[in-house]
Design a protein that fits this description.
Elements: E1 4-10, E2 14-20, E3 26-33, E4 36-37, E5 45-46, H1 48-64, E6 71-78, E7 84-86, E8 96-97, H2 106-116, H3 118-125, H4 134-144, H5 146-151, E9 154-156, H6 158-167, E10 171-173, H7 174-178, E11 184-185, E12 190-191, H8 193-199, E13 207-209, E14 214-217, H9 220-226, E15 233-235, E16 238-239, H10 240-247, E17 255-259, E18 265-269, E19 280-283, E20 290-295, H11 300-309, H12 316-323, E21 333-335, E22 353-355, H13 363-387, E23 394-398, H14 406-415, E24 419-422, H15 428-439, H16 446-449, E25 452-456, H17 460-492, E26 501-502
Helix pairs in contact: 1-6, 2-4, 10-15, 12-13, 13-14, 14-17
């Protein structure tokens, strides 16, 4: 008798789940939208119970109700790296502090970098300390919320929180741990005990596993809430982007996944561990694999901002108008740093810039300039990867932003490189199901689980026009950075009301 695999991903703006057969054939899927909370400038949070667990239970109930065959295993991924402190009964003590979009730990980044040494951290951990790292967030919690810290015994991420609720196991996958800089050694694949004790004394660190390792079974109490049969094997899971890279066969050195979403994210598979102060160096989803990762702070979030600003009910009118604008948007150039920038700038006080405006520009030019800005950001990150020893022989595009084709075409033109589009672009949940299959001994062919269905080729004339525009793009940030920082200081003087939320951005 055949059996099914369940994969669920807890994302920044929504959670998605899928039921699939062992060959990757989709049986059913489900989605739940949610919000992030931004109680102060630079703070981005999720309520673990109201978002992570509520989404997971709703999706699992919906999908298991449609299952007509046994469930072989399940996998979970989530946004990350995140910090959710829990007490000795594993109850959340505060909302989870999200990944690099949360920039509150600036002082702690500087203090830890000075104490441990920037080059020492890079050499030992694969990345420098940035807003992406968990270590400074732990230091921030200890310094700024002493009562919460006093009650903290463990920490969880989105995937490990759900896994713990399902199985009772306190685990974290090696990839997620490699983003807990400076707590993890990616070469020896272990926690760095002396640095962990310096930053988070007394904190119990989770057992380390690989994403496809079975770490427990669904307990009876969790089965009642989720509809998943008790005893179903659960794998450790990982951070969403790495699950998605696995699902589209980005597993060989030189493979690059370009994720079009609320933020743009890139993962390149490396031939060996490499280091760059401009990128994140991590371990991969499987033993013996290593990656460069890069992430822009905004991409699809800007297109949603423009949609709302122009009062459009959907993206269709904006896309149609942007298609009438030529490469270069009639001389309009944008910096996409609307929420600061992550790689390769690592500048939380970078700001968006729109230059070249005239009275002839229209909403199509504005929308196209935003798409082009994110494409220039992708090129900037790929350049940093190449400079650090990456090869990027093959680009695979995923995410909601691949729909419609215009954004992908602009990126291929800016890069002057083709992008492959897989059959399924539903997100990391498909990769979660694949990791679950591997965990219970099924052997799907990674490259055939979600085969390539189409390729977007660059257009020579557009690529030539974008060469000129990209050169100007690279000049624009250093030419405006001092003004941007001065304006950021002004913005930090203003506070959003406590508990403010934002609707989920649309990729």
């Amino acid at each position: 008798m055949s059996s099914l695999l369940l994969g669920v991903d807890i994302g920044t703006a929504s959670s998605k789940g899928v039921l699939v057969h062992a060959d990757g054939t989709v049986v059913a899927r489900a989605t739940r939208a949610h919000e992030v909370s931004m109680p102060r400038p630079g703070w981005v949070e999720h309520d673990a119970q109201a978002v992570w667990w509520a989404d997971f239970t709703a999706i699992s109930q919906e999908l298991t109700a449609k299952a007509r065959e046994p469930l072989a295993a399940l996998g979970v991924s989530g946004l990350g790296p995140c910090l959710l402190p829990v007490d000795r009964q594993d109850r959340p003590l505060r909302p989870a502090i999200l990944y690099g979009v949360d920039t509150r730990a600036r002082i702690e980044i500087d203090e830890l970098t000075q104490a441990l040494g920037k080059q020492t951290i890079l050499d030992r951990c694969g990345s420098i300390l940035t807003s992406q790292a968990v270590g400074p967030k732990l230091a921030w919690l200890r310094a700024n919320e002493p009562d919460t810290w006093a009650a903290t015994r463990r920490f969880l991420m989105a995937s490990s929180f759900v896994v713990h609720r399902l199985t009772g196991s306190y685990v974290l996958d090696h990839h997620s741990a490699s983003q807990c800089t400076p707590l993890y050694d990616p070469i020896e694949h272990r926690w760095i005990g002396e640095w962990a004790e310096l930053i988070a004394p007394g904190l119990e660190l989770p057992q380390l596993c690989w994403p496809s390792e079975v770490v427990g079974q669904v307990q009876a109490s969790a089965a009642e809430q989720t509809g998943i049969p008790a005893g179903t094997p659960v794998v450790a899971g990982t951070i969403d982007a790495w699950a998605e890279a696995t699902s589209v066969g980005v597993t060989a050195p030189g493979d690059v996944m370009v994720m079009y979403g609320t933020t743009m994210f890139l993962i390149e598979v490396l031939d060996r561990p490499r280091r760059s102060p401009d990128l994140w160096g991590t371990v991969g989803a499987f033993p013996g694999t290593y990656n460069f990762a890069a992430g822009m702070a905004t991409s699809g979030a800007i297109t949603e901002w423009i949609r709302k600003l122009t009062g459009q009910p959907s993206f269709d009118p904006l896309v149609a108008a942007a298609q009438q604008s030529p490469p270069g948007s009639h001389g309009l150039l944008m910096l996409p740093y609307f929420a600061g920038e992550r790689t390769p700038l690592f500048d939380p006080d970078a700001r968006g810039v729109l230059i070249g405006l005239t009275l002839r520009h229209n909403r199509g030019d504005l929308y196209r300039a935003a798409l082009e800005a994110t494409a220039y950001g992708v090129r900037h990150n790929l350049h940093a990867m190449r400079e650090a020893g990456g090869q990027h022989r093959r680009l695979v595009a995923v995410g909601g932003g691949t729909k419609g084709g215009l954004w992908m075409q602009i990126v291929s033109d800016v890069l002057n490189a083709p992008q492959q589009l897989p059959r399924q672009t539903m997100g990391a949940c498909l990769g979660d199901a694949l990791l679950a299959a591997l965990g219970v001994g099924q052997s799907p062919e990674l490259t055939q689980w979600n085969p390539i269905a189409a390729t977007t080729e660059p257009r020579p004339e557009a690529a030539q026009a974008y060469e000129r525009c990209y050169a100007l793009y690279r000049e624009l940030y250093p030419s405006t950075v001092q003004i941007a920082h001065a304006l950021a200081r002004e913005q930090h003087l203003h506070r959003t009301p406590e508990g403010a939320t934002t609707p989920p951005p649309t990729p």
